[in-house]
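Final report, closing paragraph on structural work. Over the funding period we assembled a curated collection of sequence-structure pairs, and we close with a single example.
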Amino acid sequence: MLIKICGITNEDDALATVNAGANALGFVLWPRSKRFVTVEAAARITELVPPHVQRVAVLVNPSREEVERLLAAGAFDTLQLHGEETPEFCAQWKDRAKVWKGFRVGDAASLAPLAGYSVVDAVLLDSYSPTSHGGTGKTFDWSLVREAKKLGRPVILSGGLTPANVREAVAAARPDGVDVSSGVELSPGKKDHERIREFICNAKTEITT
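Its predicted structure, as stored:
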């Protein structure tokens, strides 16, 4: 199962996350986020990341030119598109990177758009907020992950996960991956290394039980 720690902003947190056993790191390149990093800063951090760890660029409604510049930097192997990007927009990057599409989930009706995104490599389900594109620290009904998996795409669970609830979340939802940011932080953009280790350990424990 994929275990992604998102909102990485510095080298110390990146190295601690990799050493704890995460297999994906997320870098938020959306300027309105509290965890925003520039492409240049993220690229310097990813130089320390071993090849087996996915380097995920988190974007919200980027322009085609922005994605082109990002991929040209060579620092990322995965695009997480977390806005209102169309299937056609997602599809044009498939030969250059893995593409994940993020969706904000409030209820079962929120899953309806997923059917149109068969082109993406995975969907990421996060808690719905009318004012935020993620990082809310709130959970949603985990049974909806099982419904989303019926559409045949890998599903990554996000939203309100913590070391205390990730075992329960994995048991209830059986996602293909889990994604955490605020649940392992001391403050926005600054990770708690012990909480990262605990989160990963608890997620892996549930996987093997």
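The mean pLDDT is 93. The chain has one domain: 2-207. We thank the funder for supporting this effort.
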